[in-house]
Amino acid sequence: RQGALAKRLMIKRAQMTKLVQALTARKLVQRSVPADDRRGIELALTPAGDALVAAHAPRFLAQGDATLPGLSAGETRMLKSLLAKTVGLPVAP
Questions:
Q1: Strand, coil or helix: what is 88?
Q2: Which residues contact 76 (CB under 8 A, 6 or more apart)?
Q3: pLDDT greater at residue 29 or residue 57
Q4: FRET pair for 13, CA 20 to 30 Å: which of 6, 39, 71, 85?
Q5: Between β-strands 42-45 and 29-32, what pairing exists: parallel, antiparallel or unpaired?
Q6: How does the average pLDDT of the chain come out, rounded?
Q7: Do residues 3 and 40 touch, judged by C-beta distance below 8 A?
Q8: Which helix H or strand E contains 31, and what residues bound it?
Q9: pLDDT for residue 46
Q10: Torsion over CA of 86, 69, 58 and 16, rounded to 10 degrees?
């Protein structure tokens, strides 16, 4: 849902609305109103959005493999693990 995503990204609803409008205009995201709660807006990637994610995910995710300046490899793994846990992402082993 749009509100849950805004909360997860820690941005204001108005900013989220503008972001979703831009993604919708680019045909990367589609919005729908769920039958069980007409106040909410659900978001889903379009096929073009899926393709964009698939094309860029490997490079984006590879950024996580680098050791951060000033931290050892172990400290970098710990920091990334804690950051992932903080935002509710699965923690890598």
A1: coil
A2: 66, 67, 68
A3: 29
A4: 85
A5: antiparallel
A6: 84
A7: yes
A8: strand 29-32
A9: 95
A10: 50
- CB atoms closer than 10 angstroms to residue 20: 19
Paired residues of 29 in beta bridges: 45
Angle CA(52)–CA(39)–CA(34) in degrees, nearest 5?
A: 55
What is the DSSP code (8-state) at residue 29?
E
pTM, rounded to two decimals:
0.63
Which tokens in the block code for residue 19? 């972001």
Residue pair 31/2 in contact (Cβ under 8 Å)? The answer is yes
CA angle 16, 20, 25 (to 5 degrees): 150
Angle 20-16-50 from CA coordinates, rounded to 5° = 40
47: its two tokens:
């096929």
Q: Which two tokens stand for residue 72?
A: 């050892």
Residues with Cβ within 8 Å of residue 69, at least 6 apart in sequence:
none
Residue type, 38: R
- Give the other-Cβ count within 10 Å of 7's Cβ: 12
